[in-house]
Amino acid sequence: MNSDNHRTIIPATALDKSASGFSVAFNKRLQRRYRAEQRFKWLGIAAIFSALAFLAFLLTTVIGDGASAFRQTVIQLEISFDKEEFTQEDLLQADYQRLVKTALSERFPEVAGRQDKRLLYDLVSSGASYKLLNMVRDNPKLIGSRQTIWVPANDDVDMLIKGKIDMDQPEGNRRIKDRQFQWISSIREAGQVELRFNRAFFTNGDSREPELAGIRGAIKGSFYTLLITLLLSFPIGVAAAIYLEEFAPDNRFTAFIEVNINNLAAVPSIIFGLLGLAIFINFWGVPRSTPLVGGLVLTLMTLPTIIIAARASLKSVPPSIREAALGVGASKIQTVFHHVLPLALPGMLTGTIIGMAQALGETAPLLMIGMVAFIVDVPGSITDPAAALPVQIYLWADSPERAFTEKTSAAIMVLLGFLVIMNALAVFMRKKFEITW
Amino acid sequence: MNTVTDVITQPAFPAITGQRDTMAVTKLDTPLEKTVGNPFVEKPRMTCRDVFVHYGESCAIKDVSIDVAGNEVLAMIGPSGCGKSTFLRCLNRMNDTVSSCRVSGEIRLDDMNIYDASVDVVPLRARVGMVFQKPNPFPKSIYDNIAYGPKIHGLTRNKAELDEVVETSLKKAGLWTEVKDRLAEPGTGLSGGQQQRLCIARAIAVSPEVILMDEPCSALDPIATAKIEELIAELRTQYSIVIVTHAMQQASRVSQRTAYFHLGNLVEVGATEHIFTNPKHRLTEDYITGRFG
Q1: A interface toward B at CB cutoff 8 Å?
Q2: Which end of chain B is more exposed for a tag (fewer CB within 10 A), N or C?
Q3: Burial zone of B173 (CB within 10 Å; 0-12 exposed, 13-18 middle, 19+ buried)
């Protein structure tokens, strides 16, 4: 470690003057100073490590819970696309559910009785019939043939395969009954159960069925919302900052504006949600639950952050650059746009991206404007009802099914991933556009 | 050039200017001094009459009247805070950027009162260029540093003409041979002295009539300083130069006339050789002999 801190200090002696020529009291004080320095250093190190420990704890919990959500249990079924099932004109009207049930009954011919059959049919997700439907639609020649198809298992089966159901519990407390367990064991031994990459998680919207629920709707909703936020808050924020910093006269009115902007940055975000509800939805009539209104609300919330960051980066441009430009006869606006703004832009972009990352993780104001609704469809435009990533996490965390726990953690991982990407982008942009002088 | 030397060798004017009445000024920290020596010349390029500068309540320049002749170097010296830089910045209205600053009196460039409401500061600053204390090239290429002024003022019609302006400006600033092969490199990559000459070239590029220099060598080493001083001597043949400096030797080397400022007053003006060898006012003498400042 730093050798300076361990410099030998002449020990205090009974003499007034020690060998170094300094007084005893001086040496004592010196030692005390070094000790204080050491203490402070260790405190700092301890603080860093405890922060890192908490971060590691958070990440391991989230990843430990959520990693399994990226894999999904599938069951192999022998489906016969019986011609008799496709008597209607419209192929999409056929009863695909029955095809699945028939296949299951064929696989376990010994199962009889209404209740047992229901338990058997419960092994396979209701998504299986959609899969068959899509297959037939894409290739009608399948009708009349027999196909070996992998279909998604029900969420409870999925949990069992992932080892998240404790079979030692009494049967009544379990979602998987003993008979179901036997069936699953038998198809497992036959190699007809597999864990595969869960594509549905990235291509589907929300669903009541955990095995069918995906975050595509939430990602697109967040994307549209942030797009609106960026398009509104960046130009408005930068223009406001330029006016306040470069053009506004220095008087009470501008001081008042400045105080208000700084205060707005500290206003709880749910207030912005209430404002959005009152103004945008009830007064302006913007459709609720949409990325449009979400973006408007988040714009209000992000503006102070961007204005403050932009003003700080304008302030950091040395005044000598402004003088140089004015000195050769540039007008005020030429000075700002030719010289000051290019130098301030990296800082402004960084501030903007950090504001955007904040907006991406914001939940409370979106709850107020209806983005908390259960929305299955992936939004196609800014006026379609949509969920946002953090709200989706909130919704899933609130759902009772065991399988939504891992979905929640997986969605958190996706959200954190986006945040890391955005912050990395901020660092990259700053490095790229930074002009050194 | 002749006019200047004629004027400064003329002992005809009375030592204390009698033409102007002392204005009734109440808010002054120090009593108003009457300028010793003759601040006026026969064919002035710029004339300043009864100039007061206030920052808010405090008065930074008190009733200063002085002329700037064509093709001369006028040095302004004085202790820190004496207002010499403030006065310099009045000459191209750079003080406009300070909101609390008020300038009264009359400053004329040829026949135009530069503080007149109808005067546009943009062309004024093209006519009265400025070089600052710290070299402040734009964080752009050497070429763009020079070309910026002519571009915004529309002084050239095409690229060839612009190239020509850049080359002549750099040649006048004595920088051409050093940078001609690296015009595309950033101006900030040059040494301090080269940067300051680049700033001078940038000021020259918009063909000014007067160049103001605010302690242009204070951030430079002696060799770079010597180069700038040589350059100032050459530039005098084409421009009027007003230079603020802390280094008295520099004032004596480069200037023809010297003005001594003290606490906002213009104490003494005269031919440089007279100021440095035979100052009339006690304050000037104290400053020059190093008793304070």
Answers
A1: 249-250, 318, 320-331, 334, 338-339, 343, 435-437
A2: N
A3: buried
Q: Is A75 left (phi over 0), alpha (psi -120 to 50) or beta?
A: beta
Which residues does chain B have within 8 Å of residue A334's beta carbon, measured at their own beta carbons? Answer: 152
- CB contacts of B188 in chain A (<8 Å) are 436-437
CATH of region A216-433, choose from 1.20.82.10, 1.10.3720.10, 3.60.15.10, 2.60.120.280: 1.10.3720.10
CB atoms A339 and B92 under 8 Å? no
CA nearest B186 in A: which residue? A437
* Residue in B126, B132, B206 closest to A324 by CB: B132
List A150's β-bridge partners, or say none. Answer: A76
Residue-wise pLDDT tens digits, A248-305: 888 899 999 999 999 998 899 999 999 999 999 999 999 989 999 999 999 999 999 9
Query: Residues A119-136: pLDDT tens digits?
Result: 999 999 988 988 888 888
Three-class SS of residue A113? Answer: coil
CA B21 to chain centre: 27
Taking CB atoms and an 8 Å limit, are A322 and B97 in contact across chains? yes
Query: Residue B204, SS3?
Result: helix
Domain covering B2-9+31-288: architecture: 3-Layer(aba) Sandwich (3.40)
Residue A362: predicted pLDDT: 92
Radius of gyration of chain B (CA): 19
Q: How sure is the predictor about B11, in pLDDT bands with cuts at 50, 70 and 90?
A: very low
Q: Crossing angle of helices A319-327/B192-204, nearest 10°? A: 30
Evaluate whether B76 touches B84 at the Cβ level (below 8 Å). Answer: yes
Query: In this prediction, does ipTM exceed 0.85?
Result: no
**Distance, CA of A299 to CA of A310 (rounded, Å):** 15
The beta-strand segments (E) located in B70-217 are 73-77, 101-109, 112-113, 128-131, 210-214
Q: Does residue A368 contact residue A274 with C-beta atoms inside 8 Å?
A: yes
Q: Which residues of B are less than 8 Å from A328 in CB distance?
A: 125-126, 129, 148-149, 152, 202-203, 205-206
Burial class (CB within 10 angstroms; exposed 0-12, middle 13-18, buried 19+) of A168 = exposed
A146 token code pair: 């027999």
Nearest residue, CB atoms, B139 vs list A326, A331, A343? A343
Could A330 and B152 be called an inter-chain contact, meaning their C-beta atoms sit closer than 8 Å? yes
Domain residues of chain A, as ranges? Answer: 71-203, 216-433
Give the pair of three-digit tokens for residue A293: 């209104």
Residue with tokens 């945040």: A419
Closest partner residue to A323 among B126, B132, B149, by Cβ?
B132
Which amino acid is it at A167? M
Contact yes or no for A328 and B206 at CB 8 A: yes
Q: Are B125 and B186 in contact (CB under 8 A)?
A: no
The predicted-structure confidence for A286-296, as pLDDT tens digits, reads as follows 998 999 999 99
Residue A243 has a pLDDT of 94
Contact call for residues B180 and B172 (beta carbons, < 8 A): no
The residue type of A272 is F
Are the beta carbons of A329 and B132 separated by less than 8 Å? no
